Amino acid sequence: MFPLKDAVMGASTFFASALPHDVCGSNGLPLTPNSIKILGRFQILKTITHPRLCQYVDISRGKHERLVVTAEHCEKSLEDLLRERKPVSFSSILRIAYEVLQGLQYMNKHGMVHRALSPHNILLDREGHIKLAKFGLYHMTAHGVDVDFPIGYPSYLAPEVIAQGFVKPSDHTQCEKLLPSGPKSDVWSLGIILFELCVGRKLFQSLDIAEKLKLLLTLGCVDDIVTVLAEEHGCLDIIKGLPENAIALLKKFLTFQPSKRPTPDQLLCDNVFSEVASIYPCFHKPASLFSSSLRCANLTLPEDITQLCKDEDCDYLAERSIEEVYYLWCLAGGDLEKELVNKEIIRSKPPICTLPNFLFEDGESFGRGRDRSSLLDDTTVILSLCQLRNRLKDVGGEAFYPLLEDEQSNLPHSNSNNELSAAANLPLIIRERDTEYQLHRIVLFDRLLKAYPYKKNQVWKEARVDIPPLMRGLTWAALLGVEGAIQTKYDAIDKDTPIPTDRQIEVDIPRCHQYDELLSSPEGHAKFRRVLKAWVVSHPDLVYWQGLDSLCAPFLYLNFNNEALAYACMSAFIPKYLYNFFLKDNSHVIQEYLTVFSQMIAFHDPELSNHLNEIGFIPDLYAIPWFLTMFTHVFPLHKIFHLWDTLLLGNSSFPFCIGVAILQQLRDRLLANGFNECILLFSDLPEIDIERCVRESVNLFCWTPKSATYRQHAQPPKQASDGSGSRDSMSCFTADYQDAPKSDLSRDSIQLNDLKAEVSPRISAEDLIDLCELTGPSHFKTPTKKTKSSKPKLLVVDIRNSEDFNRGHISGSINIPFGSAFTAEGELIQCPATATLQSFKGRVVVILGHVVKNTACFAAHLVQIKYPRVCILDGGINKIKPTGLLTVPSPQI
Amino acid sequence: MHQLANAWAKAYTETTLEHARPEEPSWDEDFADVYHDLIHSPASETLLNLEHNYFVSISELINERDVELKKLRERQGAEMDKVMQELGKSLTDQDVNALAAQHFESQQVLENKWTSELKQSTAIQKQEYQEWVIKLHQDLKNPNNSSISEEIKVQPSQLRESVEGNGRIYEEQRQLEESFTIHLGAQLKTMHNLRLLRADILDFCKHKRNHRSGVKLHRLQTALSLYSTSLCGLVLLVDNRISSYSGIKRDFATVCQECTDFHFPGIQEQLEIVQQVVLYARAQRSSKSKRQHDSVNRNGGNEEKSKNIERNQSNILPGEFYITRHSNLSEIHVAFHLCVDDNVRSGNITARDPAIMGLRNILKVCCTHDITTISIPLLLVHDMSEEMTIPWCLKRAELVFKCVKGFMMENGFMGCEEFLGPYNFWYLQTISEEMFYQLSNMLPQIFRVSSTLTLTSKH
Question: Taking every annotated instance into account, which residue ranges of this chain make up the domain Rhodanese (chain A) (predicted)?
Answer without folding.
Answer: 790-889
